[in-house]
Amino acid sequence: MEVSYNNRSLKIDGEGKIIISGAIHYPRSTAEMWPSLMQKAKDGGLNAIETYVFWNAHEPSYREYDFSGNLDLVRFLTTVRDAGLYAILRIGPYVCAEWNYGGFPVWLHNLKPNITLRTTDDTYMDEMKTFTTKIVDMVKQANMFAPQGGHIILAQIENEFGNIMSDFGDEGKEYINACADFANSLDIGVPWIMCQQQDAPSPMIETCNGFYCDAYSPKKNDLPKFWTENWTGWFKAWGDRQPYRTAEDVSFAVARFFQYGGSLQNYYMYHGGTNFGRTTGGPYITTSYDYDAPLDEYGNVNQPKWGHLKQLHELLIAAEKILTNGVRRDIDYGDMMGVSVYEFSGQRFCFFGNANNQDEQTFSFEGNNFTIPAWSVSILPDCFIEVFNTAKVNTQKSIMVKRPNEADQGEEPFNLQWTWLPEYVEKIKKPMAHSLKTKGTKYVNKLLEQKAATNDTSDYLWYLTSVNINGSDKVWNKEITLQVNTQGHVLHAFVNGQHIGSQWGKGGKYDFQFEKNITLTAGNNSISLLSVTVGLKNYGAYFDKTEVGVVGPVKLISSNDTMDLSNNSWAHKVGLHGEVNEFYQVEKSNHLTWNAENLPTNRMFTWYKTTFQSPPGEEPVVLDLMGLGKGIAWVNGNNIGRFWPSFNSDNNGCSPTCDYRGSYDSGKCVGNCGKPSQRWYHVPRSYLRNDGNTLILFEEIGGNPSSVTVNTVAVGSVCGNAFEGSTLELSCQGVRVISDIKFASFGDPIGTCGSFATGTCQSPNSKDVLIKNCLGKQSCSINVTEWTFEPSGCQIFPKRLAVEAIC
Fold first, then answer.
1. CATH number of 404-422+580-647+677-704
2. Over the stretch 763-804, which tens digit does the pLDDT of each residue have?
3. Is 160 known to be catalytic?
4. Domain spanning 3-302 has what CATH number?
5. 229, 412, 449, 619: the active-site residue
6. Is 174 known to be catalytic?
7. 523-532 and 397-404 beta bridge pairing
8. Domain ranges of the chain
9. Which among 10, 247, 313, 325 could disulfide-bond with 305, CB atoms 3.0 to 4.6 Å apart, if both were Cys?
């Protein structure tokens, strides 16, 4: 394929294209999930898939590459191609993405002193070019760029640098020019894009990111209007409530974008997935990256968002020739009401857009009166009959439920048998005396920054020293205060092997001062500080230079004196004892002597182990880790991510409903107040074994594993609230069938899903029609018309059908 562009659209073999793309990040799912995700994306009306390329995942150590498993980029792109979809490859190599360190490997930061990433620093540019070239060469060898007969139609260099470029002054402009020159030299045969980069160096195509991009226009008149990130929801941090964005608002944003000349938009995210292992950034980003996307974290269709957008996509794709070639005429009716008419080869296509966030608008167009709801866009393919309105959702709402593991005739999940092992508290009794359990300890007379000490091989870094107290020195032989200044993100402090306290940041603030009264004894006293990272910062100017760990000073403070320990002899030991010795690997754990009796609960620094049978069927599997504190979980040696169910969200600001009208932001519509930010943890089916599974937990702050359960995720009930003239499709989205029609009313029903009630009038056979057409079936379709139901006697138009069914 030949890929080019003009000021209207991307062109493939000379034909203008409407591109509806969705972001699916390969490391946030599994290779076994990819075919299903692609098919659901295609069924949802997408014709392209976008992904970042994650440098630190592929090159975790200098010149040691990993493209296996869910890091197999070529296999992922092949899956996209096999589904008949285009691909957009955002190489970066900086990605942001709420991903650890923005996708940069930490060894890059440690290559030389004072290196500055995202500048023309020679070392950085050499490494950036080496990795980017490796990716381009790999893709070329697989013949995946469009001119090679492949399906990759766009590539991206850098990412959102324009947001922070001013902080770099002239050097920022030099850097972005260098990136453009380098990208051009790679000769990939398809256009390069730079998102959020106003006036990007030619021939880069600048693009927009955000909740809305209808008002965006590229600075250069010869460039098309592209939207690389339409945020379908928002990410979540520990302590955050659950953000969500309505189907009405997302579709409104999409329709407005295409109404005013847009031709390519990409959902961020279409499938968010899971931050497995230690991949979360932030800091404090949760393991779940669901993002309220059209496909949920586990790959289920998120209704009504998926279906409502599908209807819009089909209309836009069908109008491709008119939208990419036609002449647009805009008519302003005032009060935020506007009509856009596209005309091409005798055909017309109309958008009626009402951006008033309070009032519906009634107006006359070509002799006919129309009423458009507030904050909505109506689409009329012939400029005469409305076939879609963004505020009128005719798609079912799916209520997802967690069901207990049905394996072993109900013995699970309530009787998981746990064994345990303690984790060592490291300490040294006198300077330079090596009593640590593992090798690789660094001794220096200062506090090392954590990234420099660990190279990001572990969340955990011990800072160990000792203090000698003269028995006759009364100043230090009394209760004193240990003061530790840390850039966090979590600190556990021990004196002479005894835990004296723990602390972590709150409200997104991760640097804090730890203070605790302690008592020292005559002679040598050990001070052990365990610093714990929870995802490295991934965004902002010079984010790479943000220090983490115990940066100091560390002081002992008495009533009349202060002892600064910052330049003591400090031992720095990377990782936990059980982590370094891989307690989480099944074969290695089987050679350990786990304690089967006296199971400790609410005890920090404890390893727990159990086994469970795989739930039958194909529904996604999740762990309910309610009752645990904080730590890491492994299933059959696969790290499923950090858990922290003891970290509750704010108790205020939630509402069961969300007014879609008006501009959205991440705090507008939230739920899950006062509950764990994340309780459920995805275990991909491909991680499970037919002969039994091993679950190993490292509990860092104390919890009770007895309440841990294995569950599956499925549709529990479906609701519909469809307008007359539409078709309502009900589906249990799997092998389960509709077992009961809890409510059905065609007329003017009231209420919402879960609390529907009959209005002033209804068709008397409403429920009978649903029972006849849907009961016992996995899915069914109902034409919402008077022809389907007996006359309702309602003197209103349009009537509606409200349904609640049980799966």
1. 2.60.120.260
2. 999 999 999 999 999 999 999 998 999 887 788 888 999 999
3. yes
4. 3.20.20.80
5. 229
6. no
7. unpaired
8. 3-302, 404-422+580-647+677-704, 442-575, 724-806
9. 247
